[in-house]
Amino acid sequence: MYGWSEAEALERNIRELIPEWLKENELKRVQQWKLDRLAPAVERELIEAEHRRQCKPLS
Q1: What is the reported pTM?
Q2: pLDDT tens figures, 7-24
Q3: Residue 15, SS3 per DSSP
Q4: Is residue 4 a contact partner of residue 13, using CB atoms and an 8 Å limit?
Q5: Exposure string over 48-59, b if 16+ CB within 10 A, otherwise e
Q6: Residue 4 in contact with residue 17, Cβ under 8 Å?
Q7: Are 31 and 16 in contact (CB under 8 A)?
Q8: SS3 string of 44-57?
Q9: Residue 58: what pLDDT?
């Protein structure tokens, strides 16, 4: 991969493996992937918090 053996590539930081001309685009893709993975968990937490707030017993 880009001139490194698999063993060498596995020891390197992913940012070192991506050619400069690809970095900006690939960083955007990774950030979007992270958001896509986090969104359902965050949405579930918000729904659960709202449910707890609505179900609070009257004192």
Answers
A1: 0.42
A2: 887 887 877 777 888 888
A3: helix
A4: no
A5: eeeeeeeeeeee
A6: yes
A7: no
A8: HHHHHHHHHHHCCC
A9: 61
